[in-house]
Amino acid sequence: MGSLSITSFLVIWEGVVRLRLLPTYALPAPTDVLRALYIHVSSGVLLTATYHSLVHLTLGFAAATLIAIPLGMLSGWFRRVELSIDPIIELFRPIPPIAWIPFALLFFATFLEASVFIIFIGGFFPIFTNTYFGFKNVPKSLVEVAASMGARQHDLLLKVAFGAALPSILTGLRVGLGVAWMCVVAAEMFGAPGLGYMIMEMRYLHDIAAVAAYMLVIGVLGFAFERLIRFAESKLLKWRKGFTLEV
Amino acid sequence: MRFYKALILALVIIILLSATYVLFAPKAEKLVIRIGYQPSTHQIAEFIIVEKGWLIEEASKLGYEIEIEEYVFPSGPPEMESFMSGKLDVAYVGATPAIVEVSQALGKGAPLAKIVGSVNLAGSALVVRFDFNYTNPESLKGAKVGVFPPGSIQDTILKHWLKLNNLTYGPPESGADVSIVKGGPQELVEALAAKKVDAVLLPDPAPQILEAKGIGYIAVKSSEMWLNHPCCVLTISDKFISEHRDLAKLIVKLHIKAQKFINEHVNETIEIATKRLSKDWGYNESFVRMVVEKSLVEKVTDLIFPAELSQDTINGIMSYAQVLYELGNIPTLPSQSDLFDLSLYNEALAELGG
């Protein structure tokens, strides 16, 4: 069913462009996009750009995960930590990641550092917020039972609460990865090599088919990342089978 | 009584005649002409045509009531993006962005930017920070150079020159010999001042601004990178030409007149350019006047304003097309007739007695 609808969509899109029902200089046909994809893959340009984007994503997302999860844990578990950092988090959370671009370009010496910072900002807040709520919403009964069986503070935190909060943490990682990936493209539009950079290059050369080809690659990679996290969820949350409709 | 009747009759006749004239007399056709330009001394001809009111005045003689809408762009590629989407009728722009626009627009129903006049030759320079030791092109290895986006004159000349000197180029941190950073003129001036880049290749008056502010010095002129290279051109949309050929011809004639004016009335040209560029750049007029004088009088970047579109310029522009094709910036090589509307240009020149 899915492939039929995609095929129908592509056929209609091709027809609309070829029959000049919409301006062809602004909307490339699917075959033009595939041709551009072939040209950029065979020249090696697309693979190089993808490599740079993945490096930026890995560094930025890893930094966001390593900082957001522990901070979310401590905020969700210890009231004093929550009260201390909540105002700062709520002040910065509404600021869109791309608004940080001018600051990042001036503050950091290299485009790599600036890009990684923007991606970090993009991934941090969803991971932090979901981790925080995951720990905040750990069922009291679980903690009381574990405590009554002699579990110490660090056991309660790392073995009981962490396990209970894991579904929420993984949701945060999935959302954070999606936002971080969008930020990769935005950050690269301002100078760092990668898929975002190539979109701007092709834009200035009015090669709209190539722009669409790079957008397609970004979409496919984003889809792949999302599936990767779902796969991780299915393995780590096996115990939820029967509890919920998913996994 | 008879007198009053005659008076009333006369008044009625006058009113009827006036009403007839107002309702049925041929009216001037109101037309908005959208003109794109960049904040550069290269495009002073545009400033002159508009500031001196020539276009409005001469168009009214053809029966047009003209309203001019001007749009300033940081560089040619975004200007041609607007042109391609139908937002401009006339553009003062670098020859290479026009070539890229035509190459991508051909056969797709978008307006084509037809070259109908030469605006300037040379007039750009590679400005290097004082603490950067530039000795020859090789000394740029490891440097970050700021330039307009791909497809622009400066980007094309820089890449061609680097290739001739066996230097590779690419985005920052890509491992190439020279890292290329894209931006607009003000952005790149600030980037050089903040030491985010080591050099910039920009058109006048940016090199003069950078020298005047003590940020850098002119290391290489664009005319040394590519001898007597054509730079900006006057383009008019093929759609505008077909719908208003008489107006398009008028614009070409006024452009030729403006080019001659620049060469014959330098002081007045400096004042017109100062007034416009101080507004576009946001600097005070005395500073802008000084840098404009360096550009037009001292000619530190060899800036030339040819009145006519010579065969040498046409050949130079066709060479640009070849270079753009080799750089992979255009998918196919456009022909001379794709790029130029020489019949319009020659008609305008003939009517001027040239």
Automatic annotation (TrEMBL), chain B:
Looking up SUPFAM superfamilies in the UniProt record yields: Periplasmic binding protein-like II (SSF53850)
What is the protein name for this chain?
Sulfonate ABC transporter substrate-binding protein
Q: Where located?
A: Endomembrane system
Per the record, GO CC terms? endomembrane system
CDD domains noted in UniProt = PBP2_NrtA_CpmA_like
Q: Give the primary localization class.
A: membrane
Q: Which UniProt keywords apply?
A: Cell inner membrane, Cell membrane, Membrane, Transport
